[in-house]
Amino acid sequence: MIKEWATVISWQNGLARVSCDVKASCSSCASRAGCGSRVLNKLGPQTEHTITVPSAEPLVAGQKVELGISEGSLLTSAMLVYMTPLFGLFVMAAVFQQLFGSDLAAFAGGVLGGIGGFLVARGLSPKLASREAWQPVIISVGLPPDLLRVETSSSELSQ
């Protein structure tokens, strides 16, 4: 199971609206200069993702929850997003090459196949996303933010 911590924004009628922060590049590996993720993170704005998950337990705003999603559904969705356009590109490029016998036709077929594969993936995603196994679930719930209080004595501060 893939796990990620999120912050509760609101809870109403058994549905929690949570916000997951986008992770910036880690900058801890040796290949920082050539890291594609690091470059992409610098290009785009740092945003957060807001999703709704079912929660029978009442939650308060600011509370941390651990979300989980199965690896199988994550891998299948990645395959759908990346492989469908790639498959369409190669198949249609080969078909156009055989039909018309030119590189320009193969290029046009590849472009059309890639776009067609993207549209197929886009059409299949809502159907697959509605499956129960593809939905994130709350694994564990942290303490409410107003319940935890840390007090230090002045003698601990002076040491």
UniProtKB/TrEMBL annotation:
Keywords: Membrane, Transmembrane, Transmembrane helix. It comes from the Bacteria. InterPro entries: RseC, SigmaE_reg_RseC_MucC. The chain crosses the membrane at residues 74-98, 104-121. Pfam families: RseC_MucC (PF04246). PANTHER family: PROTEIN RSEC. This is SoxR-reducing system protein RseC. The gene is rseC.
